[in-house]
Amino acid sequence: MFQGSSALTLDAKGRINVPSKHRDALIEQAQGCLTLTRHPDGCLLVYPRPVWESKREQIAAFPMQARALQRLLLGNAQDVEIDGSGRILVAPELRNAAGLTRDVMLLGMGAHFELWDAAALARREADDLSQGMGEALNQFSF
C-alpha cells in the first residue's frame, strides 16, 4: 500500500526521482516496471505494472457507453521503467496533458499513485475543501 505525498522536481528531460520509500517496494513487486496514464481529474495515474495489468482488463471490459473513459485511460497508457538512478521518464504528451511543470507532487493512493502539478493540486485541494466532503464524511469516523 502506497500512501503519503512527496514533493518532487521534474528535470529538463521530463524525469522524476521515485522516492526511496516507494522505490524499493516498486522494484520488489514490479521489477521497477510502471505504467503511467491520464486521469479525468487532470493528473496522471502511476501504476505498478502488475496492478495496471489487472486494471487494464477491467477498463477494456467497460461497456460502449464508457468509450471516452477507455480512450482516456488505455489510449494514453505508457509503460516506463525505473532507471539505475531511480528515475522515471514522463513522456511529453503526458506532461502536457496533466500540465506538469517543474514542481510536482506524487501522492500514494493505496495500490497506485497520482502525479500532479504542485500548483494544480493545491488549487484542487482548496476547491475540494471549500465544497465540503458531504456524504463521504458521513460514512467515516476519525
UniProtKB/TrEMBL annotation:
Subcellular localization: Cytoplasm, Nucleoid
Ranges where the SpoVT-AbrB domain occurs: 5-51, 77-120
Main location: cytoplasm
CC annotations in GO: cytoplasm; nucleoid
Gene3D superfamilies: Transcriptional regulator MraZ domain
Subunit structure: Forms oligomers.
Protein name per its UniProtKB record: Transcriptional regulator MraZ
Taxonomic path: Bacteria, Pseudomonadati, Pseudomonadota, Betaproteobacteria, Burkholderiales
Gene name tied to this protein: mraZ
